[in-house]
Structures are given as structure tokens and as C-alpha cells.
Amino acid sequence: MELHDVQIDESTGFEPRFALRPLGELEDVTLREAEGGLSVLVTPSPWGMPKRGWRRLPVRLEPGEWLRWQFNLRFGATCGCGSDWSYRLETLNLAYGRPAGFSGKPARSVIELDDLR
Predict the structure, then answer these.
(1) Residues contacting 106, CB < 8 A, separation 6+
(2) Separation of alpha carbons 105 and 67, rounded Å
(3) Quick check: 63 and 97 in contact, CB under 8 A?
(4) What angle do CA 73, 74, 80 make, to 5 degrees?
(5) What is the pTM of this model?
(6) CA distance 105 to 100
(7) What is the pLDDT along the chain (117 residues), one digit of tens a residue?
(8) Residue in 106, 93, 96 with CA at minimum distance from that of residue 23
(9) Regarding beta strands 59-61 and 108-112, do their DSSP bridges make them parallel or antiparallel, or are they unpaired?
């Protein structure tokens, strides 16, 4: 199974970047196929704040379903290269099989937005 990876972010002017990857090569995301479904677990960067002492269980997708997983992070400039904070809102839209697309409501939704003060 191949993963069709499309990344869009502010640093590239929101210009989409496309890649085909093997199933296990998506950064910070664990994907496992079993019993006709897909198990998805997102693990935010350990360098970001706030620290999340708990982790959700993996989310299971059936063929044709899609998932939206959102989380936010704050990074400090601890490298001596400045004192500004940087903030990220990560949104993973992941479809298993051949869904109709990412319009409408996802079959599964995980929202891990935290106070970043």
C-alpha cells in the first residue's frame, strides 16, 4: 500500500508538495493495517509545548473513511538564535481506501488543541 502525501504550509506560500511514500514513512504518524482496517496514531513532536503527559489511543479507519486529527504546539528559541516563540497548528487529513474526498464531515475527528501561553 502506498501513501499519497500532500503537504501544505506557510513556509512555502501554501504551495502543495506531493510525494508517494511507503505506508510507514509519515513523520509523527504511526499507521498499521490489520483486520481490514487502518490504525492511526499521531504523536506530536516531543520538542513542542505544552507537554502532553497522556496520549490518545489509536483511531481505527474502515475502507472509504477519512480522519481529521488536529493539534497545536509552541516552540521556544532555546538555541540562542533569538527569543521569539513559534506556533504551529497541525492538521492531518488522512483517508483510507478510496473516499469521496475530504469535503463534509470526517468519519473520525480528534482535536487536541491546548492553551499555548
Answers:
(1) 65, 66, 67, 68, 93
(2) 9
(3) yes
(4) 145
(5) 0.74
(6) 11
(7) 667 788 888 888 989 988 887 766 677 788 888 899 999 988 766 666 666 666 678 899 999 899 998 888 777 765 555 567 777 777 888 888 876 677 788 989 888 877 666
(8) 96
(9) unpaired
- CA separation (Å) from 77 to 82, 101, 105, 113, 114? 6, 38, 37, 21, 20
Reported as half-sphere exposure (CB side, CA atoms, 13 A), residue 2 has a value of: 7
Residue with C-alpha cell 473513511? 65
| CA–CA gap between residue 13 and residue 110 (Å, rounded) | 26
Q: For residues 1 and 4, what is the distance between their CA atoms, to the nearest angstrom?
A: 10
Residue entry with cell 503537504: 7
* DSSP string for residues in the chain: -EEEEEE--GGGTT--EEEEEETT--TTEEEEEETTEEEEEE---TTSBS--SS-PPPEEE-TT-EEEEEEEEEE--TTSS-S--EEEEEEEEEE-S--S-S-S--SEEEEE-----
